[in-house]
Structure formats: structure tokens, C-alpha cells
Amino acid sequence: MIPQEILHKIKKIHIRGNHLVNDIFAGEYESAFRGRGMEFEEVREYAPGDDIRDIDWNVTARMGHPFVKVYREERELTIMLLVDVSSSGLFGTVKQLKNELAAEIASVLAFAAIKSNDKVGLIIFSDHAEKYIPPKKGRGHVWRVIKEVLEHQPRSTGTDIPAALTYLNMVCRRRAIAFLISDFIARGYEKALTVTRKKHDVIAIRVRDPREQQLPAVGIVELEDAETGETMLVDTSDGDVRTAYQAVTTERFQQQLRLLRSAGVDYMDIRTDAPYIDTMLAFFHMREKRL
Question: In the chain, how many domains are there?
Fold first, then answer.
């Protein structure tokens, strides 16, 4: 039996995700990602504006006037969603926890994929791959993906991104578009990203909260590392402490971006205090222009 709270979240995300895909970026997703290749479909008479490189010279010679080859794109793609459920995601100071936002982003991507007749698979991971759902089509399958992300109870608190990527490479033999959704509070994943990128189209989606970079002046607070359980007292009323904290966290975030760039991975930077749809649309437009 699914708890009522989880069921309510599933329905809410299902409705919102479906709305966003249908009304906002129905065509953006398809334009941003190409199919597996081009397949010959037919030969037809040349029309002004056709690429002369597509002229079929054999048919043209037989018929006495130009004919061109027409191709169609093999559209079907495999989308893999890799969702980090480590304890650092149980944090949020605005509207949502990071893991709730990650689940909503995953659902929107799943809806977009299904609408384009692509397959969707899911890997839920912490310091190991905790759940795997093979890629399939259909709205019922999207419902299951959303349910699993929201309902899943992590068995571990830590994060191991290389373990998730290794598992992806093991279960997906053919090329896939892999959305890696995490706060990337982890170490030692650059090599795994570089290796996986050679086999799959990897897109990193970094989810973060503004308080992870800036502390409010609220006096003495106890901070706890959600993954290790370590705690420390911090006097947030001290301006020097807040400045030092911001400098350290800003450098950490910049280091993450440098690592993703060096691995040749595309990325989206999504915050809990800003509309994620704007970031996703900008990303899709960027991919479309590059393609």
C-alpha cells in the first residue's frame, strides 16, 4: 500500500510533468536529441532547395532529370535516468527538498521521452545501484518510474557516482542518453564520467539549494553532514564566518563544473529557489543549435 502522502506527490508530479511536456517544450526535447541514424526511405524528383549532395545520379541518368534520395531519422532513443538518493538530498530551505526536485525533473524528462516514443529506464543509486528499471515505453511505465523515485527508501546514506555509471555501462549495451541527476557532493568520479561519455551521451543535472552556498545570519546553528552524520556548531552571526563559508562552497561548486567540463559532459545547474523549466528550455535550445 502506497502512503497517501507519497500517492499525492506522485499524482501532483504526474499532472505537472504532463502539463509541462504538452504545453511548454513538446518539440524542444525532440529537437535537442537526435535518433540513432538516417535510414533511406525513397527517391523523389528534385525540388528547389534540395541538397545537391542527395542527388541519386543513377536514377537521374535513367529518367533524364534530377532525382534525390530521401532519408528519415531513426527516432527511437533510450533514455536512462540516474537519480541520486543519498542523504544529502534530504535538504531544502525554499519550496522543495533536493530529492523531491530531482524526482520532478526525472518525471518531466520521462514524459518528454514517452511523448517522443522513446524508451525510459531508471537507476536509483546511493553508494551503490539500489534499483534498476529496464527501459520501456508507455505512460504506465512513466507512472512506475515516478513512483519508484518518490517511494524508494535508500539503504545507504553515501554517494558513489562511479558505481552508478559502471552499472549503467553494464546494463545498457547500446548507446543511451543518460541524465545523471545529483547534487554531486562526492569525489573521484571524473574518470568514470570520461569513460561513460565514450559510450553514452551523458548529461549531468546538478541540483542544489541556496543555503549550501550562503549562510543566513541567524546566530549559532548546528550543521550536520547528512551522509556522514558529523556535526559542528557555527556562529552565523559572524560576518567573517559567513564570508569564509561562501568562499569555500563557491570554490567547491566551481570545481564541480570544471570537472564536468573536463570530462566533456553537458550539464544543467538547477536550484531549489528558481524555476527549473527555464534552465531546461535553455539547455534544449543549446543542444538544438549545436546539433
Answer: 2
Nearest to 285 by CA among 266, 271, 265: 266
pLDDT 10s digits, 250-262: 898 899 989 999 9
Q: Are residues 160 and 47 in the same domain?
A: no
Please report the pLDDT score of residue 12 as a whole number: 61
pLDDT reported for residue 116: 82
How far is residue 44's CA from residue 59's CA, in Å, rounded to a whole number?
Answer: 10
Nearest 10 degrees: CA dihedral of 123, 134, 12, 95?
10
Question: CB of 108 within 8 A of CB of 26?
Answer: no
Closest of 227, 232, 235 to residue 87, by C-alpha: 227
Nearest one of 76, 106, 84 to 176, comparing CA atoms: 76
**pLDDT tens digits, 135-186:** 998 888 888 888 888 788 899 889 999 999 999 999 998 899 999 999 998 8
Secondary structure (3-state) at 85: coil
The pTM of this model reads 0.79
- Phi/psi region, residue 154 (left: phi>0; alpha: psi -120 to 50; beta: rest), is beta
3: helix, strand or coil: coil
- The domain of 70 spans 36-74
